[in-house]
């Protein structure tokens, strides 16, 4: 669906069903250079099982207008405005990588809008090699190649895919090459408040981490779980790009965690 946020057209996937803000809402926040397609399987399941779903493209990404936001703090504030524009009071917020940093900032700035937090393939800080940012400024496609080389686990590099006939690395490359990857990476590199923000939150939280994550290493994710006082699980055999690399496993964990939050 399309809605106006700050007077600018914003696209949000709804899982294939008409959005109904009277239902419990799950808000999915994509990672650097990505978009709503990261969440294709997960959004569809929740939309057809009693929830309403919103998976927006952040400003300047894919089907959303506007300029890309320059900081994680700005992205958190934008998410608060997006939730208001959708007519939602509180949401279960799920973020992948940078998307979870955005979710942390949303929770810091507008905790009343966040029912629960789930982070996937993430950490309290996400350092970025300056050479990668420099490459992204020259060519998003070139930087995407570098990022995806490190972002996927061994199985994906052998050509294995959870969806027959579709290659997740190729999907990631296609999306990232058309999006403001440099702006997102710079925002991640500049953000150092995640652990401090996490330590002050009192929101039920859960992390889904990857055993082969080379971008937000497992130890960093486990450290964030301790700071958040969050439960966590580790999906072995996969890398950083969990939502599109291991979509079924991620969906299973999301179903379990959000059901436990509701109990």
Explain what the structure shows:
Strand 5, helix 3 (98-109) and strand 6 form a beta-alpha-beta unit. This protein has an 8-stranded mixed sheet, with helices on both faces. The chain has a single domain (2-262), classed as 3-Layer(aba) Sandwich (Rossmann fold). Helix 1 runs parallel beside helix 12 (247-262). The radius of gyration is 17 Å and the shape is globular. It is built from 12 helices and 8 strands. It starts with a strand and ends with a helix. By secondary structure, the protein is an alpha/beta fold. 44% of the residues lie in helices and 17% in strands.
Mean pLDDT: 92
CATH architecture assignment: 3-Layer(aba) Sandwich
Spans of at least 5 consecutive residues whose pLDDT stays below 50 are none
Number of domains: 1
CATH class: Alpha Beta
**Biggest sheet architecture:** 8 strands, mixed
Helix content: 40-55%
Short description:
An 8-stranded mixed beta sheet has the order 1-2-4-3-5-6-7-8, with helices on both faces. By secondary structure, the protein is of the alpha/beta class.
Q: What structural keywords apply?
A:
single chain, 263 residues, alpha/beta, Rossmann fold, eight-stranded mixed beta sheet, 12 helices, globular
